[in-house]
Design a protein that fits this description.
about 170 residues, mainly alpha
Length: about 170
């Protein structure tokens, strides 16, 4: 294994850890802490500011995952010709790779909906003092998208392991 391939795999795994770690921090650490009564006056502002910061970190992580994933395939001997002929998707490796790529694309779409539509909508509604039931409905949508993103991310880790170690089922 060459040094550049090693670095690329390391970056890929690190970006995945940063991506999933940010979601775990937000859902298991930060959001529960925001429910504390002492934080009520700053809850919306704190969530917006932390969310915006994690959004940047998250999208950089996804970009690193995409670029290193493409590089890693090339380092394993696959090229654009394999993509065009369909050879990239052949066999157990190819089917698992297709599952990983499809899940990643779905994750990107769902995360974009969360980050650029539903999340900002919740912030705007809170800022406008919208009726509680409207804010609650949009918050539930944001929560559902966030949970789905986390579950897809955890599944992507499993598929990534299966890609290099084989499927256990």
């Amino acid at each position: 294994m060459g040094a550049l391939y090693f670095l690329s795999v390391w970056l890929h795994i690190t970006a995945a850890a940063v991506w999933v770690g940010g979601m775990v921090f937000l859902s298991l650490g930060f959001l529960p802490a925001l429910r504390h009564p002492d934080l009520q006056p700053v809850r919306s502002t704190a969530l917006r500011l932390v969310g915006l910061r994690l959004r940047v970190i998250g999208w950089v992580s996804l970009l690193v995952l995409l670029l290193t994933g493409i590089y890693n395939l090339g380092a394993r001997g696959y090229g654009w010709g394999d993509l065009l002929t369909g050879n990239l998707w052949a066999g157990a490796f190819g089917r698992t790779l297709l599952e990983k790529v499809t899940t990643f694309a779905l994750l990107v779409v769902i995360n974009a909906l969360h980050d650029f539509w539903v999340g900002p909508k919740v912030s705007a509604l809170v800022h406008q003092n919208a009726p509680t039931e409207v804010v609650t409905r949009w918050r539930k949508a944001a929560t559902a998208l966030g949970i789905l993103t986390l579950l897809l991310s955890l599944w992507l880790i499993a598929v990534g392991i299966m890609l290099v170690r084989g499927r256990p089922f």
